[in-house]
Amino acid sequence: MEVSKRHHTVPNFYLKGFGSTDSKPKIGAVSLDDGKRLVMPTSNATVRKNFYALDGHPDGADVFEKELSRIEGDASAVIRKAVEGAWSLSREDREILGTFLTFQFLRGPDTRAWMDQTQGTVLSKVITQMGAEGVRKTLARSDKEVSDEVQNRLIQQAVEPDGIIMKTTPAGHIRHILELVPELVRYFVGRPWVLIRFNRKKLFTCDTPVALVRDPEQEDVCAGVGLMTAWGISIPLTREVGLLLSNPMALVEEAADRKTPRELLEDVISGRYDHEQAGSTKMAQLFNSHTIANARNWLFHHPDDADLVPDELPGPRNREVESEVISG
Fold this sequence. Notes:
By secondary structure, the chain is an alpha+beta fold. The protein has ten helices and eleven strands.
């Protein structure tokens, strides 16, 4: 059986929602690295060779890629229903789409870079605090033999701006995904969902399309935002349809004297508070601005929408962890 080596970090079916409608759909792409604009087949966008490969797995190195394809197939059918007018979703469809969004939130190179940088930052701090002599004494007591050259390189890298460079394996990344999905999916399905249909305005997408939205009333624009604290989560589904997982706190405050948190959560998951609305200029700006800000290396758009992409774009986002290395 042929083993797939071309792994999409954003599914091809999803990118087709922003592509041309010919037999081999194409999508506009803007590189945040050099500003270059091009048109490519959707099947070639966000492809990384062996990104999820599990070498030596009895079911083939592409076993996780195949599992993602299964999840994508189920989600594709649900998104198609929503785009074609079936809203709100059944509980089963909501859980399918919520699970897909959780996987998408975790599966990209941004998460792997975060893992690399987190481990590298921690190790750099530990080595810097120990000092060269402490590192050598610690390594001398270990079972593994580490050459002086490697020791010196680690000590030197620890005090450099980027610290020690770590590389997470596909297996480590996949383990991280599978551990977190059951925990994080609640923060997707447990929000009121708003489907927004745009007529004149068009949406973009990017290589990390699930974006966290900060509370618009938040005065500190530099404050961090996490999955639990985000005011909302925006996901452009196609160039004309966006999905906003909105803030549940208003519901909690409104129903606090009538329902327990568990009862309210059940109501939310049932879709009782979901609704649909027509897109506005302000809402299109919310989606597109968060898509642009959340992109790491590539912004994508329908080939006919190239003129709508701003000339001024941020550069590539390579740092996922901002932490100063402790000097010692």
